[in-house]
Design brief:
Layout (H helix, E strand, L loop, with lengths): L8 H10 L5 E4 L8 E6 L4 E6 L3 H17 L8 E5 L4 E5 L4 E2 L7 H20 L6 H25 L5 H18 L4 E4 L8 E4 L4 E4 L6 E4 L5 H7 L4 H11 L5 H25 L2 H20 L1
Antiparallel strand pairs: 1-2, 2-3, 3-5, 4-5, 6-8, 7-10, 8-9
Length: 298
């Protein structure tokens, strides 16, 4: 058995007990993530080990794996093989395919992937999970916090925003909590984007990974990344995804999605300008501009 120095000793001993014949360990962590991930191989199969910075994300990952096992097919989501709240860490099965983000896909194939991603998210959302009354209160509070953040950003940024952008951000601060009250609450994935999608071109299977942000919430919040990053320049991907999802968004869902995305964009912009981070500043300006145009079109 060979060991990778990046796998902590206690974690390595725990993994070896659950995966006899542990052979190699490769660090596959995201550069900007606060959880650490390793791909491990044995003589029989591959698996992934994930170590969390605290108990909250660990609990969400475990619950997300349990939800995935109920809502999705075995080839669509990893299965939980072992969990250890003391570390805290999990071992999950490996799926075939490659992370979609960065894959050199032809447009037709990319539309196919987004169509399947819409189908998968619909099954994920449609599988019911009990939502305690306290969680409904937390969801409402989360939306209020987002609206308040938009108001603070608006005051701080001032003439850094165009008139149309100021109007949109003001709408977030004033209208989002009211609109959100009537929206569908589901068990959200929490980070539904191509960096957490897998595509196996050989089998034509689409998979989903990374459940550490999963929790009950408003369904359209799972579309914020797509709305801000993919759909503005690729309306064909929006059509493919929503066709897969099975329905067009209602007027309230469309409006709230634009407002949720605009809130994220103005937060990026405010943080980027405050910390002199050009990437965040540019991202914020771009997405906010896209949302102004989306508001007019939708």
């Amino acid at each position: 058995m060979t060991h990778d120095a990046s796998l902590p000793r206690e974690l390595r001993h725990w993994v070896a007990r659950h995966l006899p014949g542990l052979d190699t360990v490769t660090d596959t962590s995201w550069p900007r993530g606060d959880s650490r991930i390793w791909r491990v191989t044995t003589g029989v199969a591959d698996a992934f080990v994930k170590l969390y910075p605290g108990p909250e994300k660990f609990a969400r990952e475990v619950q997300g794996c349990e939800h995935a096992a109920r809502a999705l097919a075995p080839h669509e989501a990893p299965r939980l093989l072992a969990s250890n709240p003391g570390l805290p860490a999990v071992i999950t099965s490996a799926l075939p395919g490659h992370v979609v983000r960065g894959l050199p896909l032809q447009e037709a194939e990319e539309r196919r992937v987004h169509h399947l991603a819409g189908q998968l998210l619909r099954r994920w959302h449609n599988h019911p999970e009990p939502v305690p009354a306290s969680m409904h209160a937390s969801i409402t509070a989360s939306v209020t916090v987002q609206a308040d953040e938009a108001a603070a950003c608006l005051e701080h940024l001032g003439d850094q925003l165009t008139g149309a952008q100021q109007e949109l951000v003001r709408e977030v601060s004033l209208d989002l909590p009211r609109i959100a009250q009537g929206l569908r609450v589901v068990y959200r994935h929490g980070d539904y984007s191509p960096r957490n999608w897998l595509w196996d071109a050989h089998s034509g299977h689409h998979g989903l990974i990374d459940f550490e942000e999963s929790a009950p919430g408003i369904a359209v919040e799972d579309l914020v990344w797509l709305c801000g990053a993919a759909w503005p320049t690729r309306p064909d991907l929006r059509k493919a995804f929503l066709t897969g999802y099975g329905s067009e968004l209602s007027e309230a869902e469309k409006r709230s999605l634009i407002l949720f995305t605009a809130r994220l964009a103005v937060s990026y912009l405010n943080t980027g300008l405050t910390k002199n981070e050009t990437m965040l500043t540019d991202r914020g300006r771009t997405v906010l501009g896209h949302m102004v145009h989306a508001r007019a079109r939708w």
